[in-house]
Automatic annotation (TrEMBL):
Region Disordered, annotated ranges: 1-23
Organism placement in taxonomy: Eukaryota, Metazoa, Ecdysozoa, Arthropoda, Hexapoda
One GO term of the biological process aspect: DNA biosynthetic process
SUPFAM superfamilies tied to this protein: DNA/RNA polymerases
InterPro entries per UniProt: DNA/RNA_pol_sf
Organism name: Parnassius mnemosyne (clouded apollo)
Name of this chain's protein: Reverse transcriptase domain-containing protein
Length: 186
C-alpha cells in the first residue's frame, strides 16, 4: 500500500484562527458511515470496506494526516480527482447521450475528510453559531425529509389556513438536499 500523500505547507500564515486537532471521534464517526455503504472504489482502487477494516490500524496515522490538512487549510488535489463512469439508463437507445447517467467515483479518504469537515461545521453552527435557520432541514442533525414534509403539511392545513390566511410554499432539491421554502401570508 502506498504511503499517504504529503501535504505541502500552506502559503498563508494565520495564527488567529485556531483549528482544533482532529480527534478519534471525528474519524470514527466518518468511518462508521462508510460501513453502511457499499460503494464502488475511486481512482485509488480502495473500497470503503477496506478503510473500515484498516481504520483501527491506520487510525492514528490517518488522524494525523487529516489534522495536518485542517491546520494548513488544504484539501489534497488527489482526493478531488474522480473517475467518470457512465451508467446506461434502461429503455434508451445506446447511441443517445441522454441514455447515460454520469457518475464520478471519488477516493474514500477524500470522502472521510469531507465528512469530518461537514460534522465540524454543523457542530460549530449549532454550538457557536450563527445557527442555521429554523426552517432549514438540509445540513442539520436530527432533521429529515419527513420533518420537512410534516412542516409543509402543518403550514398548509394548520392555523394559517383556519384563520383565512394563506401559505405559499415550495420544496426544492439542490445538490441532493431537500430544502423547504414557506411563507405564511396574512
Amino acid at each position: 500500500m502506498a504511503p499517504p500523500p504529503v501535504v505541502p505547507e500552506a502559503d498563508h500564515q494565520d495564527d488567529d484562527d485556531d483549528i482544533p486537532e482532529g480527534t478519534g471521534v471525528d474519524l470514527r464517526v466518518a468511518v462508521r458511515r462508510l460501513k453502511a455503504r457499499n460503494t464502488a472504489p475511486g481512482p485509488d482502487g480502495l473500497p470503503g470496506k477496506a478503510w473500515v477494516l484498516a481504520s483501527e490500524a491506520l487510525g492514528p496515522r490517518l488522524e494525523g494526516l487529516l489534522s495536518a490538512c485542517l491546520e494548513r487549510g488544504q484539501f489534497p488535489l488527489r482526493w478531488k480527482t474522480g473517475k467518470l463512469v457512465l451508467i446506461r439508463k434502461p429503455g434508451r437507445p445506446a447511441d443517445s447521450p441522454s441514455a447515460y447517467r454520469p457518475v464520478v467515483l471519488l477516493d474514500e479518504v477524500g470522502k472521510l475528510f469531507e465528512r469530518v469537515i461537514a460534522n465540524r461545521l454543523a457542530e460549530h453552527l449549532a454550538g457557536t453559531g450563527p445557527d442555521l435557520a429554523e426552517h432549514q432541514f438540509g445540513f442539520r442533525k436530527r432533521r429529515s425529509t419527513v420533518d420537512a414534509i410534516m412542516r409543509v403539511r402543518a403550514l398548509t392545513t394548520g392555523d394559517a389556513v383556519a384563520r383565512g390566511g394563506g401559505c405559499l410554499g415550495g420544496v426544492s432539491r439542490h445538490r441532493q438536499r431537500l430544502q423547504l421554502h414557506a411563507l405564511e401570508l396574512h
